[in-house]
């Protein structure tokens, strides 16, 4: 018991000191299902007749809970525009979630530092309780992740149930009905990705996997026997942006019109003098006082009017998740060359939960540095 306590203390202490990157193993998911009536989970959170999902993250032995890990979950067979859930487990390594009423399935995985679990698919029905256990292996292997979309190159429609594999790695994953797939725990280096589906020409493509980084792959399959060249495009994500949830908010925000997003490539293409000049390109945002030397500008939302004069109000600004307070501006803190990504929400209605609150009624600008 003393050994386990010391092991847990060393693990949590290392994470708190920012050395999580040393735990570059693969999170392997072992799922335990309970299909009876809602029990302890129902006492923890009343889901009002909906399915209850309990997620627990433990160490390899299954005896020590791991706090501060992140669960990423997407409900399917539900509202197609509903954004994913991204939440940290509690100190006891558990997280309770109530499924949407129309959800029939949940796809989820866990992340901790550079490591991540395999993707799991859990079926749901009303009043059902599901317990999902994700075990963290502190292995020495250096790994990354590949996610992608598979489409018909002729029609642009998603290709479901396409088989995706990495040469030299056991196991095959299948694309979902939207043509999406995730391959986790892939050793770093150049890997050969293979894609097969009946009625399409097989495809093989070399992908470079980086430690703790997600590589995005867009695959265009050619219907067989049409004589065309398959199409594959790859892009490596910024690790900071991925951990912060930037890419997920960007995907869902652009899908439903909730905010505007600028990547490093967008900023380099504009080559602005001040980062506020890029942010002001977002609809509903204008520059306010730029100071005597005009070397820093306040960001104002024009979608929210306050007072009888209908004046615009000042937007809240976050830098790497920390709100900027006081009289300074974003231009005082960062230069365009230091920025990896920017999120702009001109009004409270489009704000994601992590930026909500009464002090964000005028909108939010979130800047992430490299």
Looking at this protein, list some descriptive labels.
Ferric Hydroxamate Uptake Protein, Chain A, domain 1, single chain, disordered N terminus, Immunoglobulin-like, mainly beta, 3 domains, five-stranded mixed beta sheet, five-stranded antiparallel beta sheet
General description of the model:
The structure is a single chain. With 370 residues, this protein is mostly beta strands. It has three domains: 2-136, Immunoglobulin-like (Sandwich), CATH 2.60.40; 143-237, Carboxypeptidase-like, regulatory domain (Immunoglobulin-like); 241-369, Beta Complex (Ferric Hydroxamate Uptake Protein, Chain A, domain 1). The chain contains seven helices and 25 strands. It has helices at 2-16, 40-44, 239-244, 246-256, 264-270, 275-279, 330-333; strands spanning 27-31, 52-59, 70-76, 85-88, 94-98, 105-112, 115-116, 120-123, 129-136, 143-152, 163-166, 173-174, 180-187, 189-196, 203-209, 214-221, 231-236, 260-263, 285-287, 299-306, 311-314, 316-319, 322-323, 339-345, 364-369. The strands form six sheets. Strands 3, 4, 6, 7 and 8 form a five-stranded antiparallel beta sheet that branches. The chain has a five-stranded mixed beta sheet with strand order 18-24-25-22-23. A four-stranded mixed beta sheet has the order 1-9-2-5. It is globular and about 60 Å long. The model is unreliable at 1-44 and 303-310 (pLDDT under 50).
């Amino acid at each position: 018991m003393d050994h386990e306590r010391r092991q847990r203390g060393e693990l949590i202490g290392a994470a708190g000191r920012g050395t999580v990157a040393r735990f570059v193993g693969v999170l392997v998911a072992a799922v335990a299902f309970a299909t009876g009536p809602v029990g302890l989970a129902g006492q923890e959170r009343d889901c009002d007749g909906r399915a209850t999902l309990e997620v627990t993250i433990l160490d390899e032995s299954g005896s020590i809970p791991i706090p501060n890990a992140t669960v990423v979950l997407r409900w399917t067979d539900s509202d197609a525009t509903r954004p994913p859930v991204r939440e940290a487990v509690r100190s006891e390594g558990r997280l309770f979630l109530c499924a949407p009423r129309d959800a029939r399935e949940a796809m989820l995985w866990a992340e901790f530092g550079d490591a991540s679990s395999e993707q799991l698919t859990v079926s749901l029905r009303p009043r059902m309780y599901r317990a999902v256990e994700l075990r963290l292996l502190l292995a020495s292997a250096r790994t990354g992740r590949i996610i992608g979309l598979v489409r018909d190159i002729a029609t642009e429609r998603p290709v479901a149930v396409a088989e995706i594999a990495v040469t030299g790695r056991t196991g095959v994953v299948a694309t979902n009905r939207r043509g999406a797939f995730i391959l986790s725990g892939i050793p770093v280096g150049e890997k050969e990705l293979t894609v097969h589906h009946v009625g399409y020409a097989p495809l093989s493509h070399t992908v470079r996997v980086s430690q703790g980084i997600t590589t995005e792959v867009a695959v265009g399959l050619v219907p067989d026997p049409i004589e065309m060249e398959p199409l594959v495009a790859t892009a490596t994500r910024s690790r900071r942006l991925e951990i912060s949830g930037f890419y997920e908010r960007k995907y869902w925000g652009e899908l439903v019109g909730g905010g505007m997003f600028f990547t490093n490539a967008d900023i380099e293409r504009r080559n602005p003098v001040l980062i506020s000049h890029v942010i002001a390109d977002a609809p509903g945002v204008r520059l306010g006082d730029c100071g005597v030397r005009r070397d820093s500008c306040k960001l104002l939302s024009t979608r929210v009017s306050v007072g009888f004069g209908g004046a615009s109000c000042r937007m809240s600004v976050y830098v790497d998740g920390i709100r900027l307070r006081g009289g300074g501006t974003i231009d005082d803190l960062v230069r365009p060359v230091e920025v990896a990504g920017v999120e702009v929400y001109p009004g409270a209605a489009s704000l994601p939960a992590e930026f909500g609150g009464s002090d964000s009624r005028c909108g939010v600008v979130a800047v992430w540095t490299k």
